[in-house]
Amino acid sequence: MELYRSPYEAYPFLCDESEDLRCDFELLTDEMASLTGLLRAQVTDRALGEELLWLCELIYHINPTLRTFFSVTDDELSRLRGAVERLERECAGRCGLFVLTQGCQAACTAHVLRVRAKELVRLIYRHIRQGHEAPPALLDAANLLSGYYFQLALKLNMLSGVDEIPYHSRNYR
To answer: Which terminus of the chain has a smaller tally of CB atoms within 10 A, N or C?
Structure first.
């Protein structure tokens, strides 16, 4: 059976074979950049808003990596790592191991982005397990994004005067 290709196709790689994860990677990073823009619209702190705009652009630089090459610089990775460390210091003592994903709207959006970044890490590993190469720095960037959005959620709740609610698992101790 011949595959129908719509002349209105929104993206030329949407018909890629399901085993080819490159388009899935690109769609996920596109979603993350879009959600980062949404989060920026929810944030009132000017400096955080500028940082989120930078992050949105960084994610779009990550987007074509599996199809082309990793273009994020060492300086950009260092800046992202520094942002995570800064947020960790600013939010020290806000949570133990786990917190419920609640609070102000912006923090909740940041938690969604944290999960999407973990999905990105998982997708990269699946791509590698299929026999493809991916630069270690790409995995570092994706993991740093998850850590950034988690710490940012804590910071946004703190700025909004919302207390974190600890989560105590019945399954993991």
So the answer is: N
Q: Are 62 and 141 in contact (CB under 8 A)?
A: yes
Residues 6+ apart with CB under 8 A from 148: 55, 80, 83, 84, 87, 117
CATH at 107: 1.20.1200.10
The reported pLDDT for the residue numbered 112 is: 98
CA-CA distance, 130 to 128, in Å (whole number)? 5
The counts of H helices and E strands in the chain are: 5, 0
Under DSSP, the state recorded for 12 is T
Q: Which structural domain range is residue 152 located in?
A: 22-159
Q: Give the model confidence (pLDDT) of 153-167 as tens digits.
A: 999 999 999 999 989
Whether residue 173 is predicted with pLDDT greater than 80 in this model: the reply is: no
11 assigned to some structural domain: no
